[in-house]
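This section describes the prediction task in plain terms. A model, or a person checking by hand, is given the sequence of a single protein chain and must write out its three-dimensional structure as a string of tokens. No templates, partner chains or ligands are provided. The sample shown here is typical of the held-out split.
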Amino acid sequence: MPPPLFARLRSRLQRTPALTPADEPFDAETLETRLLMADVGASASAEIVADAERAARGGKPGAVTAAVRTRLESLLAPAAQPLAIDPGARPFVILVLGVNGSGKTTTIAKLARRLKGEGRSVMLAACDTFRAAAVEQLQHWGEREGVPVVAQATGADPAAVAFDAWQAARARGSDVLIVDTAGRLHTQGHLMAELAKIRRVLARQDPAAPHESLLVLDGTTGQNALAQAREFGGAVGVSGLVITKLDGSAKGGAVVAITRELGLPIRFIGLGERSDDLEPFDAADYAAALVGGET
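The expected answer:
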């Protein structure tokens, strides 16, 4: 049986304009237009259309859809690398990055819930000290999920909060420490510098920390998401991605473009605001959701 998220993913990604190709009559131009409108990207779209054209010449029913799905899966497969928590790192530190509005704080809550469900002890660090609302939101999620949150007053040094949180997580024997950071644009140099400072402080506690730097990207923003990933990667390093907001747009093909250009693992995808709307990325499920068919 496919995972529970798969059915919802499929129904939402197949909103107009759909990627599902019509086998008869097959129109390469129409398929390419659909792919580009879904933010798949030019080079990947060209490969998919070429495979579809070869399948169409064979005349076998269902061949075009199968060819498109197979090519999509092969393009996405390199990114399907789940998050691995090293049990030897106590705490295992996850630094969460992203611009305001990407779903970063909600993703932290979902991830904390997921890790707790796996039997791990989790602590959160509220290092977005620039906005009081950000700290309050994280504290709200922490209370809701039964996860302790280390926080200081608005305007406090984010790196100092990270230091206190690491010390607290270490003292309590927490398995995982998730560090929230200020939502920032890559053009905000002072915030990028602050983020680099947080990384340095964590590395002084454990040279391997942060063990994972997760960048949360709004999957509906297409090329802007790619630009964010490039800039964050260049400034502070990114080891994995979370693609969010795939519940509100048919532009699910942006995941293909992101995978193609960045070569970064996609650890999770997110749908909606519910605390269980987070699943490890699976290339076969995602390709099937985009074009139809079963996994």
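For orientation: The mean pLDDT is 85.
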